[in-house]
Amino acid sequence: MTPDAPAGPPANPANPWNIRAVFVDQAVAGSAMARRVRQRLPEAAFQVVEDSGPSAPGHPSGCGPSGGPGPGGESGRVLRLSAHRGRFLRPCPGAKSYRCCGYRIVHIGEGCPMDCTYCILKAYLRTDDLRVFANTPDMFAELGDMFGRDRSRRFRVGTGEFADSLALESVTGHTAELLEFLRDLDNVVVELKTKTADLSWMAASPRPDRVLAAWSVNAPDIVAGQERGAPPLSARLAAAREAARAGFGVCLHFDPIVPHPGWEKGYAATVDMIASFLRPRDIVYISLGSLRFLPELPAGLAAMGRLPDYYLNEFVEDLDGKRRLVRPLRVRQLRHVAGLLQKCGLAGKLYLCMESDEVWRAVLGRAPHGPDGLARRLMELAFEKRRDGP
Ligand code: SF4
């Protein structure tokens, strides 16, 4: 068994992230979510406000080489329950020259209580506050219209873009509500992408073939040193095993793969650990993503005295304005991790996140068929009938 990071979160499971104040937009003060949050956080100060402030602009990407401000600290965190006025369903932003996975985002909120040094939300969101959209009837009206219009059209959606899908679930019950809404929609698979070990969403009794339980994983040194507040790998994989035993398909995301001293051994240890918790048939797909970040992120970390050494590697400007690792090291890392997973019988389940055909061929010896090839393949895997059970 691989050495693991000390446990991150829930000292107090009732208020896992030490939320001390909740600001509620007037427009959602009477919402079911506001009632739940009030019940679940009896010690937090509640205040109804006219408008709890604007949403973040642009398109980060939550639980990947992306999203989440600092820790709550001793004074605790602020949670804002807002009414989202824009569209809830969005395409995942993908640069044209890269193979895009065709995932669609259900926008449930912004901000993350965990604190990963590679997280893009640090650069996007200029606040540590956590925001959740409580106007779920508006969200369900939009989703119902889109998903119900043509039941022969399939959707693979997820909630982990501007946030971790499940970090606030124990407080908001947001995902449980979403799963109840989706229960009768045969044409939608939802991926819940997280670093937590939260399985409370299972209580909503979702159809196992319509939910993908997804975990971000990394090398032990990265988990221990760069993912502050996140549960250890063993806790994530134990949760993944439980989800698989309940019949849910499991997805794993090596994102970002970080160049650090001993990375070859580190990622090998993580793959060993995955193999000790999960069978190949439990796993629906695995993404591999290289380190990429907004140019302003390292300066922000340096100002806090928290700039990790891995930012001293050589990077190039990406097509979407981010910085990414130079190609030779990127390919070496991706190839190494892919090779380890291939040896575990997972060759057919691997894909690369935001890479060109050249990198695909260099790493996996193949590239997706046509512009939509990757999206189509992942859709097939997501909807595939699974032989489940222990
Ligand atoms: S878990 Fe880490 S990478 Fe994911 S959204 Fe939170 S802070 Fe960002």
CATH fold-level assignment: pyruvate-formate lyase- activating enzyme
Structural class by sheet pairing and helices: alpha/beta
Cα gyration radius (Å): 20 Å
CATH class type: Alpha Beta
> What's the number of domains?
1
The total count of helices amounts to 12
Strand order of the largest sheet: 4-5-9-10-11-13-14-18
The biggest beta sheet is recorded as: 8 strands, mixed
Strands, count: 18
Percent of residues in beta strands? 15-25%
Based on the structure given, which CATH architecture is correct?
Alpha-Beta Horseshoe
Please estimate the helix content: 25-40%
The coarse silhouette is globular
Separation of the first and last Cα atoms: 22 Å
Low-confidence blocks of residues: 56-62, 64-72
Bound molecules: iron/sulfur cluster
H/E element sequence: EHEEEEEEHEHEHHEEHEHEHEEHEEHEHH
Average residue-wise pLDDT? 88
